[in-house]
Amino acid sequence: MRRIGDAPLIRRLLISAALVLSALFLLLPLVAIFAQAFSQGVMVFWSNVSNTFTLHAIGLTLMIALLTIPVCLVFGVALAWLVTRFSFPGRRILQTLIDIPFAVSPVVAGLIYLLLYGRNGWIGTWLDGHDIQLMFSWPGILMVTIFVTCPFVARELIPLMQAQGSREEEAAVTLGASGWTTFRRVTLPNIRWALLYGVILTNARAVGEFGAVSVVSGAIRGKTNTLPLHLEQLYQDYNAVGAFACAALLAFIALLTLAAKAGLEWRAARREAFA
Amino acid sequence: MSQLASWRTGSTRVLPGFGLSMGISVLFISLVLLLPITGLFGQLAELSFAQYWAIITEGRVVASYMVTIGAAAVAAIINAIFGLLLAWVLVRYEFPGKRLLDALMDLPFALPTAVAGITLATLYASSGWMGGLLEPLGFQVAYTWVGIALAMAFTSIPFVVRTVQPVLEDMPVEVDEAAMSLGATDGVAFRRVILPHIWPALVTGTGLAFVRSLGEFGAIIFIAGNMPYETEITALMIFVKLQEYDYAGASAIASVVLFVSLALLLAINIWQGRFVRRLHGGKG
Amino acid sequence: MSIHLHNIAKHFGTTQALEPINLDIHEGELVGLLGPSGSGKTTLLRIIAGLENADRTAQPSKILFGDRDVTNVHVRDRRIGFVFQHYALFRHMSVYDNVAFGLTVLSRKRRPSSGEIRARVFRLLEMVKLEHLANRYPAQLSGGQQQRVSLARALAVEPEVLLLDEPFGALDAKVRQELRRWLRHLHDEFNFTSVFVTHDQEEALELSDRVVVMSNGRIEQIDTPDELYREPKNRFVFEFLGDVNHLEGKVTNGVLTCGDAYWHVDLPDGHEELLLRPHEVRLTEQPTSESHLPVTITAISPVGAEVRVELEADWLAQPWLATVRHTDFEHLALRRGQRLFAHPRHWRRFPNAESKATEQSRVA
User: Fold this and answer.
1) For residues B40 and A115, is the Cβ–Cβ distance under 8 A?
2) CA triple B72-B73-B75, angle to 5 deg
3) pLDDT tens digits for C219-270?
4) In this complex, do B279 and C153 lie within 8 Å of one another by their Cβ atoms?
5) Residue B124 near chain A (CB below 8 Å)
6) Cβ distance B227 to B186 under 8 Å?
7) B164 Cα to chain C: minimum distance (Å)
8) Sorted alphabetically, which keywords does the UniProt record give (chain A) (predicted)?
9) CATH of domain A42-273
10) 3-state DSSP call for residue C31?
11) pTM of the model
C-alpha cells in the first residue's frame, strides 16, 4: 500500500531525526538521574535513601497518595456517572469545571488554599480559633494534592462511558437490578481498565506534585516534607547525589507508571483485535 | 418534553443514582475547586483597584510576564515541530524501538516536575553532559531564558504528540491515495492535504502546551537562575511574594495568571468547536 | 490509451489474491471487473493504478499503458484518474478546490493559467450539474453529489485511464442508477479508457463494453455482456450473472427422472444436473408430451416489468424462480397455491468444474 512519505530516503531521515532528538531530549535526562544517583556507588545511594528524613519524606508522600486516590476515585466515578448517564441543565458547565486544575498553575493552586485555610483566611481564622491547623502540615498537603489530581479519573471515564452508552445499565434496571448491583455488576466490569489507568495517573501526579505543595507545606524537615520537597532541599544544600537518590526513586515510580500504561494499552488492543 | 421541563417535574429517570452522584459531584466541586477560588477574590477585595494595578504592573512583575510568555511561546513552537515529527513517525512508520519511543512520549507527564527540574539543571550546567558540549560552542542554556524554554518544552511535549497522534491515525488511506493519484508529490500532498487535516489538533495541542508552560514551576526554577528582571518566571514571583508574607501581592499576580490561563483554555475550546463544525458540516 | 497486463500476480501474507493474470483492454473501452468479494478484482484495479505493486515473480510482470511501460512508475506519475468508493474528497477544501486540485499540483511548466483552470473546473462541474455548489464543502453535500465531485476531480487532469473502485457501492439504488448514466455519458463524451470494479452484476452488464468476470484471483471469462449472458463459459459465470434453477436427476434412455417428474432430454445415461434461467421456464396448465414437471406456486411478486413466481415441488431440492410477463400472468390467472406444470425452454449443463465446456439444447 502506497502512502504519502513512504519513500525510503524520507522515511529513514525522519525516523533517525525522531530517534536522535528523543534520545537527547527525553532519554538522556532519564539516564542522567540514575547515573547521578549512583555516581558515588550503591552504598552511598542506599545510605541516602535510608536516611531518616528521606524515609519520612517517602512515608509522607505515600500516605498522601494513598489518601488521595480513594477520594478522587469516588468523585471521578460519581461525576462520570452523573454526566454520561443523565441529561440536565448545567451538565456542560460541570464538565468544563473539572478542567480547572489543568488551567491553574500549581503555585496558584497552593496559594488559593493558603488564602482560605491559612491563619488569615476566613475559614482559617475559624480553624485557628479551634486550634486546628491545616496549612503547613499534612492535611494541607493532602487538600492541594486532591485539588491537582481530581480531574484524572473523571477524564478517563467520561469519554469511555459516553461511547459505551447506557444500554446495558438500562437493561439491568428493567431486569430488576438495584442501583448498586447495576453499577457493580454491569458498569464496573466495563470501565475497570480505564478506572485503573485513571488511578495510575492520579498516583503519579500525587506523588510528584511540587509547586502547590511547596506553598502550603512549610517544608519542615522530618515533618512536612514530601519526597519532591525533600529533594529540593537536598539540592539547595548542594547534596546533589542525595537529591538524585530521591529523584531516582521518583523516576522509578514514573517508569512503573509508563509500564502500567503500556500494559493496559496492549491489553486493550488485544481485546479489540478479538472483538 | 424538553430537558428542562422533565427535570422540573421530577419525572422518574430510568437509571438510579442521580441524586447521589449529583450530590457528591456538586459537593466536591464546590468544596475543592470553587470555594478556594473565592478565597482569592476575598483577598483581592481588600485591595483598591489602584493598588491592584500598581502591583500587577510593577516593573519586576511585568518583566516576569515577558520572560514567562516569551519562553512559553518559544517552547510551544519548538514542540509543535518536534511533536508533529514524533507523531508522524509513530503513526506512519514501523521501526525497531518504536514501542519504546511511544512510551517515552509520556515520560514528561509521569515524571515529577522537581525531578525534571534538577535533572535538566544538572545536565545543562557548564559541568553537565549537555552543557559541557554546548557552552564551548557558545550556547549557554542554564541560568538563561533558553533553559526556561527548554524546561517548558520538556514538560509539555506530550500535549502536542498525544493530541496529534489520534487524528493522524484516523486519517483514511484513501485521502493519501486520492492526492497521489491526482499527481501530487509528497511535499505538496503533505502541505495541502495532510497538514490542513491535522491542523486543528496541532493548534489545540500547541495551545495546551502553551497554557501548561505558563504555569509550570518545579521544572523551571532549578535551571532558570531566577534573576529578577531576567530569568524570573511569574509563578516564582508569586512564591517570592508569599515568602515575604505579601499575600495581597501574591493574590494580585495570581489572579492575572489564573485569568489568562482560563481565558486561553476557553478560547482553545471554542476554536476547536468551530473548526470541528465546519469540517463536519454543522453536525458538531 | 490501451492497457496491457502481463503476468500480474499478488500475495498478501500467505494468501494469493491474484493468480498470474494477463489482460488486454482496448483504447476507449469501458470495462467492468465483476466478481464476489475476495475475487481479486479490487486488487487488480489498484495494481493498474499503482496503489499496490504486483509480486516480483520469476517471470517478468508488466503493465503497459499504450506503448508506455508503467510497471515501475509511481501512482502520481501514471496520469490516471481514480474514483474511490467513499469519495475521498478533501474535507477542508471546497468543491471547486477539490476539482481544481489535480491541476494546481502540476509543475509550473505544465500548469495552466488560473483563468484556464477556472474554466476547466466550471466546465466539469457543469457536466455533472454541480456548478451552483462550487463553494460548498463536502460535508454539506449528499453522497451522490460527493461522488459526482469525485468524478469531476478525477477527470480534471484529463487522464487517459479512469479507474473506479466500486464507485456507487455506498449509494442507494436510485442514485446509483443516475450515476451510472453520468458515467456512461462522461465516458462517451471524453473517450477515456475506463475500468471499474463492482460486485453488482446488473451494474456491470448495463455499463460495460466488456466484462471481466473474476473469482478467487482468476479471470473466469471476458466477454461482452450479451455474450456472457448467452454463452457463459462455466458454472461460476452462469450462476454469478443471474438467478439459477437447478434440475437434478437420473437420465435413462433419454428421459431425466426425478421423483414423479420426468423430462425428455437428449443426453447420455447417468446422473445429470441441468441449470435454467428464470425466464427460460414456461408455466402451463397441462404437461406436454416431453415434460411432466408438476410445481406449486408458493409466492408471487410483481417486480418492474415482470412477475416473479416462486415454485416448489417435492422433487425439487431448492425452490425454482420463474419470471413471467404480465400478459401471461393475467392469461394464466396465477395465484398462490395453484398447481401448474413447468416447461423449460433452454437448459445448460457444465459437466465438471475443470472443463469449461457447456452444452445447451433447445426444447420445443
Assistant:
1) yes
2) 65
3) 999 999 989 888 888 888 988 888 889 888 888 888 888 888 888 888 888 8
4) no
5) no
6) no
7) 17
8) Cell inner membrane, Cell membrane, Membrane, Sulfate transport, Transmembrane, Transmembrane helix, Transport
9) 1.10.3720.10
10) strand
11) 0.84
